[in-house]
Amino acid sequence: MGLSAAAPLWGPPGLLLTIALHPALSVRPAKAPASPHRDYCVLGAGPAGLQMAYFLQRAGRDYAVFERAPGPGSFFTRYPRHRKLISINKRFTGKANAEFNLRHDWNSLLSHDPQLLFRHYSQAYFPDARDMVRYLGDFADRLGLHVLYNTTITYVTLDKDRQAWNGHYFILTDQTGQAYQCSVLLVATGLSVPNQVNFPGSEYVEGYESVSVDPEDFVGQNVLILGRGNSAFETAENILGVTNFIHMLSRSRVRLSWATHYVGDLRAINNGLLDTYQLKSLDGLLESDLTDLAILKDREGKFHVTLKFFLEENNTNQSADSITLPEDNHDNFALRVAYDRVIRCLGWNFDFTIFNKSLRLNSGNPFDTKYPLIRASYESKGSRGLFILGTASHSVDYRRSAGGFIHGFRYTARAVHRLLEYRHHGVAWPSTELPITQLTSSIIRRVNEASGLYQMFSVLADVVLLKENVTAFEYLEEFPMLMLPQLETLTGRKARHGLFVVNMEYGKNFSGPDKDVFFHDRSVGHTEDAWQSNFLHPVIYYYRQLPTEQEVTFRPAHWPLPRPAAIHHIVEDFLTDWTAPVGHILPLRRFLENCLDTDLRSFYAESCFLFALTRQKLPPFCQQGYLRMQGLASTESLRQHGVESRLLRDYAAMGRHLEDSSQRPGNRGPVGAPPDPGPPVQSLDSNKEEL
Amino acid sequence: MSPSFNVFRVGISFVITCIFYKSTVDSLPELSPQKYFSTLQTGKASLAYFCQADSPSTSVFLEELNKAVGPLQDYGISVAKVNCVKEEMSRYCGKEKDSMKAYLFRGNILLREFPADTLFDVNAIVAHVLFALLFNEVKYITTLEDLQNIENALKGKENIVFSYVRAIGIPEHRAVMEAAFVYGTIYQFVLTTEIALLESIGSEDIEYAHLYFFHCKLVLDLTQQCRRTLMEQPLTTLNIHLFIKIMKAPLLTEVAEDPQQVSTVHLQLGLPLVFIVSQQATYEADRRTAEWVAWRLLGKAGVLLLLRDSLEVNIPQHANVVFKRAEKGVPLEFLVLHDVESVISHVENNMHIEEILEDEDDDMEDPDMDVQDDEVAETVYRDRKRQLPLELTVELTEETFNVTVMASDSLVLFYAGWQAVSMAFLQSYIDVAIKLKGTSTMLLTRVNCADWSGVCTKQNVTEFPVVKMYKEGRNPVSYAGMLGTEDLLKFIQLNRISCPVIITSVQEAEEYLSGELYKDLISYSRVSVLGLFSPTMTTAKEDFTEAGKHLKGYVITGIYSEEDVLILSNKYAATLPALLLARHEEGKIESILLASTHVQDIVQIITNALLGTFPEITVENLPTYLRLQKPLLILFSDGSINPQYEKAILTLAKLKYLDKFTPCWLNLKNTPVGRGILQAYFDLVPPLPLLVLVNLHSGGQVFAFPSDQAITELNLVSWLKKLEAGLENPITILPGQEWKPPLPAYDFLSMMDAASQHPTRKVPECMKEIDVQESDKEQHEDKSATRKQPIEALRIKHWNRSNWFKEAEKSFRRDKELFSQGS
């Protein structure tokens, strides 16, 4: 079925390729009949898969997406079980800037089509999961993405071939045994395997994925929930009002996302149980390592919590009544009550099963099976040409940034696409080259509107590559910052004359599960204290050359990048609007000036004219503007302000003054003496003391 | 605070502490009355404080007395504390404990007795003691009459140092007394505390103290008043000393050596020298002038008469004053000054600048990095509350952009609301809209890229501001001219016609050349260009058309290639392919052979043809002339140029004398900034017009045509020849330094380092001790000042930048420094 639907799509290119490959094949006759080839194969038509497909489609690349379900976003057809997405759908920001608005839109994918914004799909601030399914379906359809639905890839292996882009092809086999040959494999299968902890009695535990969502089923029950993530709290929230009480058990303390600034931690929308716990209701939270536990079922079908240790002591398959319970020794043991239900909400793991060992996707560490092993470029450490996208790529910034979520990985997918464009098609990382006078403005523009920097803070950063003699620069957006040492080979751009990295950061000691984020005096207002800013704010690093891999690896603790030659913090802003002329732009300009050892001020044409005739050298602004006949004329009103501020001189008035004095009889006053004995022009001639 | 900074401060404090200890080495001897009187030597002065033996051993008075031991010893006065024990009572020992007094003896003769409260501090002690000892040298007066009597008595004999201090015993009084101790035998010191007396001799702005030098020795005529020189510096011992030294120096010195080598006491004391250049012929007059100048500059500069005739080194012919600064290594300034006032103002202005430079240096130590020094940013910010008539332009959005530019010919300004340069230009843009209101078919629109980022990105706008012209959906043309009203207006107007215009008949061509065809446009394009081609010259025509498109909006171009083109080429003596240039202002039509037909070459030919032979240089057109890379020969004129000068220069240009230069003139009425340029060239600007040669592109020398010569062809040629031969000295050399950052940036990296090191920082043992001392001392110093809260608590967020906050913060910062030392 899936194949027949896909046939028209696969037909001609497959044929063409077979012909093209013919000479190669004939040399190696052992080859089975050629399987259809794609340059790019994307596994999974979830948000990350579709996002990647969009970029490949726009670039005109040869690609296909494989999806086992009949439509995109199948995860969202079942999850979250209680149907409420916790990614915010902020429809209004008071701003028209579409790029800025993406900072507060956590659900949309990136595209050129303004209709494909999530706000057109739901009015709810926390939207329903069904709207996400509808949105993803529209995204795939409207953009005409090549998705093979109902195609379950059951096996992925490597086929070494020196002709291949990466020295090997990825061979994908579907449920019908059809194989596909891919030059690059982009895995966007998400985390699909529920995380299970094995302990005696774990068979009595119901999983989040299958537990009833009908509160009626929990009326008057004692419920124990294992886990303390959003799914655990979401489950608790749903039944909070009908149970006798809910106990929640997890290895470590609850992490509140408002304290950690990590959207994967417990969100306020789900934290009703915290409220009732701390307001002396019967519900409660406990910390213990689940692997030490055991659950026993008594004759009445109720569950008791005990320690694995006691079970091993007895070493027999006895009934619950005869096994030691903790309360036998400590009669105030917290979990001594019998439970009607035990529910497991322990999160998800990546499905490694379909990948052949030769792909070396996991670390081999049995305790580390949540995520595949990847680099900061999202490429697998085990196989070149295999990239992990979407939720499964979150190991790069787990518990730090947004790479595990739509509003984060939509940008990392773009970054991966840009890397691939250069690697396989020679299309260098997109950049804008501008004269150095535009440097301050370029940075200010980006820190005020860029959504990728804002969402993927401290993972993706803008890079400014300086040109020779600091006359111009290239601006690269959203580069995976830990790949800086390889920037030249990954992007095709040269970084020979120093660079700036523009990042967004929270204060170093601001985020953490036990941090009080509402402490008095938490916000910094003075530019001199900008480095102590706590809230997300722009930080600019200056390097004289690209940092080496070693420097990146051994960077100081809690630093996103190695130690730079100089650093600048733009002071945090309550409105995240960093356009204040003196508070934000001026200190940034001074920083850039001092890194580049030049003067980046702007001047009116009249000042440039004066400089042109009274100095041998001109400031960059005059060189790049005025001397090219693009000087900036001032208007009467601006000129007046300039004179008032003493930054400009009123030469016309000076002329009038001289005339007046020379007309006075008998007074042959010195011509050209300054008319105003007050302080001289403040700064146009600030170089004067160096004369 | 960075650790290094702390160390630095510790070092300074340590030195201060050492000085403090050294000065207390000579401690106050404690003697019994008998012992004390036995030590008194004949002729030697001694100050003794008699006190009861059982009185407290320390008191504020004793502390101050202790401090006075050293200074008084310097003047040969010994100090002692005499303990009155019961066994040997002295008559100087008072009856009651609190009526103890100090006594001043010379030998064993009592000179004065002082109640302890008059000697309130060390200054008072020194001042009173010296005042008592120098009774004759320092005359204390209370009336103007006293002063006149003394003045009259000393005319022709001795000079007077007259000073006013607000009270006896204050530091200024001590300074005067210390000076009197040194100079009392040479000059008569006169002292008063009467402010009325000072007012009566015409002093203004009287504060704590004033000091005058009365030049009475020179006065021979008793009816004449003594000249007075006011000391302008604050009254300190050192300043008085320097002042008197300068008064002692000869008023006027004659020299006949290289001014570079001359040094006088003035120079050593940091004052500049003024050389009045003299020739034998005018010696007498020059000397009188020089004396007059010297009197005026007394205390401000040294004045010398430089005898040019017997001088070996060459000084510029025209210079009549040479100014030598006190700073080493600063070149001499050769000046042409026409009267005494200008000499004096030159000196005073330069002193003034010096002071300001010092101030600026102070600023460098604590620069206020938060003060805007970008003129565009500051002016736009100050203007932010003015309402612009923005409604005269159409604001485009994501939705309306495409529809609008497709529907009508539109000019689009892409700007960003937060970017100063584009906001400055927005004002000019609105001015254009005002000027065009209701007359133009061109729609003036704007896009704020801060709001409509997507539109700007799609239109490939990556910097601000950008102006593009959209015509009938055709490829937009970016405006590349000056960001100002006039040039943009010209661009819009000239874009009304196609470029090149296709001319279809000889008659039309003639109308085109005469300016009739586009009457309303020729004010925007001083030259109309007509390309003449025979119909078969296809490539040449294409290239010319291409070049015309390039120049669209900047100059009017037309093309004629009908069969009868020879009529025109014959009339204007042009060989095809040719360009005809009609200069409308001059009413001339030139022809140029189009040898090369490369597009770029044609553009270049036309651009060059637009340049004038002797243009008026303006802010707008200077860059086009700078491109020629030749030295500029600029005639500065206040108002329109004298036709004779113009004729002279045009003649020379015609005769190819000026080929190496770009001759031009500058009208100060149209380009007032020219005054700023003249100021940079001349310290004191001679009367206009001025002809100046500026070698901008190699070396930056500026030469001035002698202002006493008339600008005639002959004089010019000989001057240029001298220049070429290297016989002229430049009047100045333009500074060649690079543009460096105007101010430093915050060093956040060090601040972060300091913060991260702080908790683990170990203070070395030896430094700890110093720290303790220091913090003791600090507490002492700080005792009187009200302690403020620790800095961190005070660092309130400032949502608004207001001045009071800045001020307050400065004082907080000082506190912070104090605090960090102790830590």
Automatic annotation (TrEMBL), chain A:
Q: Region Disordered: which residues?
A: 657-691
What keywords tag this UniProt record? Answer: Endoplasmic reticulum, FAD, Flavoprotein, Glycoprotein, Oxidoreductase, Signal
Picking any one GO molecular function of the record gives: flavin adenine dinucleotide binding
Give the signal peptide range.
1-26
Q: Does the keyword Nucleotidyltransferase apply?
A: no
Q: State the similarity comment.
A: Belongs to the FOXRED2 family.
Q: What is this protein called?
A: FAD-dependent oxidoreductase domain-containing protein 2
Task: State the organism named in the record.
Answer: Prolemur simus (Greater bamboo lemur)
From TrEMBL, chain B:
Pfam families attached here?
Answer: Thioredoxin, Thioredoxin_6, TXNDC16_2nd, TXNDC16_3rd, TXNDC16_N
Instruction: Specify the domain of life of the species encoding this protein.
Output: Eukaryota
> Coiled-coil region(s) at which residues?
none
* Database matches in Gene3D superfamilies: Glutaredoxin (3.40.30.10)
Q: Which residues form the TXNDC16 N-terminal domain?
A: 27-130
Q: Where is this region: Disordered?
A: 772-791
Q: What range(s) does the Thioredoxin domain occupy?
A: 394-493
| Alphabetical list of InterPro entries matching this protein | Thioredoxin-like_sf, Thioredoxin_domain, TXNDC16, TXNDC16_2nd, TXNDC16_3rd, TXNDC16_N
* Domain TXNDC16 second thioredoxin-like: from-to ranges: 131-250
Compositionally biased spans, kind Basic and acidic residues: 772-785
List residues of the TXNDC16 third thioredoxin-like domain: 251-341
Q: Name one GO cellular component term.
A: endoplasmic reticulum lumen
**UniProt protein name:** Thioredoxin domain containing 16
Q: Which organism is it from?
A: Prolemur simus (Greater bamboo lemur)
